[in-house]
Amino acid sequence: MQQHPRLKIVKKILRPIPASSTATAPTEHVDLSLIVVDKSTSGLKEIFQEAPFNTIQHATDLLSAFAASPNFTTSELSDDVLALIKRITTADPNSASFGPDENNENWGHSQFASWAVSLTDWAAVGNTKYACELIAAAVQTCKSA
Protein backbone atom coordinates (compact mmCIF):
# COMPACT_ATOMS: atom_id res chain seq x y z
CA MET A 1 0.00 0.00 0.00
CA GLN A 2 1.37 3.42 -0.97
CA GLN A 3 1.69 6.10 1.71
CA HIS A 4 -0.31 9.28 1.41
CA PRO A 5 2.00 12.15 0.31
CA ARG A 6 1.08 14.25 3.35
CA LEU A 7 2.02 11.40 5.70
CA LYS A 8 5.43 11.20 4.03
CA ILE A 9 5.97 14.89 4.74
CA VAL A 10 4.84 14.54 8.38
CA LYS A 11 7.38 11.73 8.79
CA LYS A 12 10.09 13.90 7.22
CA ILE A 13 9.23 16.73 9.60
CA LEU A 14 9.39 14.48 12.65
CA ARG A 15 12.68 12.83 11.71
CA PRO A 16 15.16 15.72 11.36
CA ILE A 17 14.00 18.31 13.90
CA PRO A 18 17.20 19.67 15.42
CA ALA A 19 17.73 20.09 19.13
CA SER A 20 17.68 23.58 20.55
CA SER A 21 20.93 25.43 20.01
CA THR A 22 21.24 26.07 23.73
CA ALA A 23 21.59 22.71 25.42
CA THR A 24 20.43 22.41 29.00
CA ALA A 25 22.59 20.52 31.43
CA PRO A 26 20.84 17.51 32.95
CA THR A 27 21.20 19.00 36.43
CA GLU A 28 19.64 22.32 35.41
CA HIS A 29 15.87 22.66 35.84
CA VAL A 30 13.95 23.24 32.61
CA ASP A 31 10.83 25.34 33.12
CA LEU A 32 8.44 23.66 30.70
CA SER A 33 5.72 26.23 31.38
CA LEU A 34 7.78 28.73 29.38
CA ILE A 35 7.75 26.51 26.29
CA VAL A 36 4.47 27.15 24.53
CA VAL A 37 3.87 26.03 20.95
CA ASP A 38 0.88 27.29 18.98
CA LYS A 39 -0.77 24.20 17.44
CA SER A 40 -2.55 26.14 14.71
CA THR A 41 -1.33 25.87 11.14
CA SER A 42 -0.44 29.57 11.11
CA GLY A 43 1.44 29.31 14.42
CA LEU A 44 3.38 26.28 13.25
CA LYS A 45 4.17 27.94 9.91
CA GLU A 46 5.76 30.84 11.81
CA ILE A 47 7.93 28.39 13.77
CA PHE A 48 9.08 26.62 10.60
CA GLN A 49 10.08 29.92 9.01
CA GLU A 50 12.67 30.59 11.72
CA ALA A 51 15.93 28.90 12.69
CA PRO A 52 16.56 26.14 13.51
CA PHE A 53 13.31 24.74 12.11
CA ASN A 54 13.53 26.54 8.75
CA THR A 55 15.95 23.87 7.53
CA ILE A 56 13.15 21.30 7.38
CA GLN A 57 12.05 21.13 3.77
CA HIS A 58 8.36 21.22 2.87
CA ALA A 59 7.13 21.91 6.42
CA THR A 60 5.50 25.21 5.50
CA ASP A 61 4.09 23.67 2.30
CA LEU A 62 2.48 20.90 4.35
CA LEU A 63 1.03 23.37 6.85
CA SER A 64 -0.28 25.54 4.00
CA ALA A 65 -1.99 22.45 2.56
CA PHE A 66 -3.52 21.74 5.98
CA ALA A 67 -4.82 25.32 6.18
CA ALA A 68 -6.23 25.19 2.64
CA SER A 69 -7.99 21.87 3.19
CA PRO A 70 -8.43 21.24 6.93
CA ASN A 71 -11.17 18.67 6.41
CA PHE A 72 -9.70 16.60 3.60
CA THR A 73 -9.99 13.66 6.00
CA THR A 74 -11.88 13.51 9.26
CA SER A 75 -11.13 10.18 10.87
CA GLU A 76 -9.98 9.72 14.46
CA LEU A 77 -6.36 9.07 15.23
CA SER A 78 -5.21 5.59 16.13
CA ASP A 79 -4.50 4.51 19.70
CA ASP A 80 -0.81 4.19 18.78
CA VAL A 81 -0.58 7.79 17.56
CA LEU A 82 -2.56 9.01 20.58
CA ALA A 83 -0.07 7.21 22.85
CA LEU A 84 2.83 8.71 20.87
CA ILE A 85 1.46 12.25 21.28
CA LYS A 86 0.84 11.66 24.99
CA ARG A 87 4.34 10.24 25.51
CA ILE A 88 5.90 13.22 23.74
CA THR A 89 3.81 15.92 25.45
CA THR A 90 4.10 14.53 28.97
CA ALA A 91 7.84 13.87 28.94
CA ASP A 92 9.65 15.96 31.52
CA PRO A 93 13.41 16.50 31.17
CA ASN A 94 13.47 17.31 34.90
CA SER A 95 12.34 13.79 35.79
CA ALA A 96 14.80 11.56 37.62
CA SER A 97 13.70 8.71 35.35
CA PHE A 98 15.88 10.13 32.56
CA GLY A 99 19.61 9.56 32.81
CA PRO A 100 22.43 11.74 31.50
CA ASP A 101 22.43 9.81 28.22
CA GLU A 102 18.83 10.92 27.60
CA ASN A 103 19.29 14.67 28.06
CA ASN A 104 20.69 17.55 26.01
CA GLU A 105 21.20 16.45 22.38
CA ASN A 106 19.69 13.04 23.14
CA TRP A 107 16.50 14.45 24.65
CA GLY A 108 13.42 13.11 22.90
CA HIS A 109 14.86 9.88 21.54
CA SER A 110 12.97 7.62 23.94
CA GLN A 111 9.73 9.60 23.47
CA PHE A 112 9.91 9.18 19.69
CA ALA A 113 11.04 5.55 19.79
CA SER A 114 7.88 4.15 18.20
CA TRP A 115 7.06 6.89 15.69
CA ALA A 116 7.87 4.77 12.63
CA VAL A 117 5.51 1.97 13.64
CA SER A 118 2.84 4.37 14.93
CA LEU A 119 2.64 6.47 11.77
CA THR A 120 1.74 3.65 9.42
CA ASP A 121 -0.65 5.59 7.20
CA TRP A 122 -2.68 8.79 7.11
CA ALA A 123 -5.65 7.06 8.75
CA ALA A 124 -3.49 6.48 11.84
CA VAL A 125 -2.93 10.25 12.13
CA GLY A 126 -6.64 10.90 11.67
CA ASN A 127 -6.88 14.46 10.44
CA THR A 128 -5.03 17.76 10.15
CA LYS A 129 -5.84 18.78 13.74
CA TYR A 130 -4.05 15.72 15.12
CA ALA A 131 -1.20 16.11 12.64
CA CYS A 132 -0.68 19.66 13.93
CA GLU A 133 -0.78 18.39 17.53
CA LEU A 134 1.89 15.84 16.69
CA ILE A 135 4.09 18.40 14.94
CA ALA A 136 3.65 20.88 17.82
CA ALA A 137 4.61 18.17 20.32
CA ALA A 138 7.78 17.48 18.34
CA VAL A 139 8.66 21.18 18.28
CA GLN A 140 8.02 21.49 22.02
CA THR A 141 10.32 18.53 22.69
CA CYS A 142 13.07 20.15 20.64
CA LYS A 143 12.69 23.45 22.45
CA SER A 144 12.97 21.74 25.83
CA ALA A 145 16.22 19.98 24.88
What report would you give on this structure?
By secondary structure, the chain is mainly alpha-helical. The protein has one domain (5-16, 34-144). 44% of the residues lie in helices and 0% in strands. It has helices at 5-14, 41-47, 59-68, 79-90, 115-118, 122-125, 128-144. The longest helix has 17 residues, at 128-144. The chain is globular and about 45 Å long.
Task: Map the helices and strands.
Elements: H1 5-14, H2 41-47, H3 59-68, H4 79-90, H5 115-118, H6 122-125, H7 128-144
SSE topology string: HHHHHHH
- How large, in whole angstroms, is the Cα Rg? 15 Å
Given helix and strand content, the structural type is: mainly alpha
Low-confidence stretches at least 5 residues in length (pLDDT < 50)? Answer: 19-26
User: Roughly what fraction of the amino acids lie in strands?
Assistant: under 5%
Overall number of strands: 0
Mean pLDDT: 80
Question: Helical element count?
Answer: 7
Q: How far apart are the termini?
A: 36 Å
C-alpha geometry: globular
Largest sheet: none
Oligomeric state of this protein: single chain
Q: What's the structural domain tally? A: 1
Helix content: 40-55%
